[in-house]
Amino acid sequence: MPDKWVRIWKERLPDVPLALTQVPAGTAQDLLLGGEADAGLVRLPVDRTVLSAIPLYTEQTVVVVPRDHLVTAADTVTPDDLSDDIVLHPLDDVLAWETLPGRPALERPATTADAVELVAAGIGVLVVPLSLARLHHRKDLTHRPLEEAPESSIALAWPEAATTDRVEDFIGIVRGRTVNSTRGRKQPPAQDRRERDGRADRSGGARKQQPAGRGRRGSSGGASGSRGKGKPRRRS
């Protein structure tokens, strides 16, 4: 999705640069509040007292395991299927682990990338949103959907005090607005008047009246049938 939004941005605003930066999920809010980014895709919840946010979608939760793990024989996995495994809980993880039934975190690697290395070494398994499993994909690892697991919701967020026109442009692209949409933008009064006048012309409410005594060619009124004041016809 970000690639699609960037492409549309470049089509609509080719002279305005837009740069995407990948950051750990736990640092995104601080970067926004520190002015290091104008907007960001963040994992909910966020501090709504200082950030505006538009929820976009909820990610599927998966478990990352070695390819020869027993759970790979199933299409989906439950927490009970992981009862004999160490579940890794990276420090940069944002999933609500306390809601995962009966599975307290036993290992706390610093990052998701470190946790993936431990999974590859056979130390444990990793429960993450699907996007992170794809981001850290390895040929010797695979993943399966995990039922009854905490979910991670994604939102577009930006500092409430820094809602600029460019931020509004990006919000419009993310929400699928067309290039002609003016939602979220205030138009100058003169432009409003021009648009109202244009609508009136199209609806026929502002037609000009013909001056009295003049008719259009071919009409039944006016002077189109009057010959009395001309010269008399010459008889043959």
Automatic annotation (TrEMBL):
Q: Which domain of life is it from?
A: Bacteria
Q: Which InterPro entries match?
A: LysR_subst-bd
Q: Where is the composition biased (Basic and acidic residues)?
A: 191-204
The record's keywords, sorted A to Z, are: DNA-binding, Transcription, Transcription regulation
Q: Does the keyword Transcription regulation apply?
A: yes
Show the ranges annotated as biased composition (Gly residues): 218-227
Transcription as a keyword of this entry, yes or no, is yes
| Residue ranges, annotated region (Disordered) | 178-236
Specify the LysR substrate-binding domain's residue ranges.
Answer: 5-176
Q: Which PANTHER family match?
A: HCA OPERON TRANSCRIPTIONAL ACTIVATOR HCAR, TRANSCRIPTIONAL DUAL REGULATOR HCAR-RELATED
The family classification in the record reads: Belongs to the LysR transcriptional regulatory family.
Recorded protein name is LysR substrate-binding domain-containing protein
Which organism does this sequence originate in?
A: Streptomyces virens
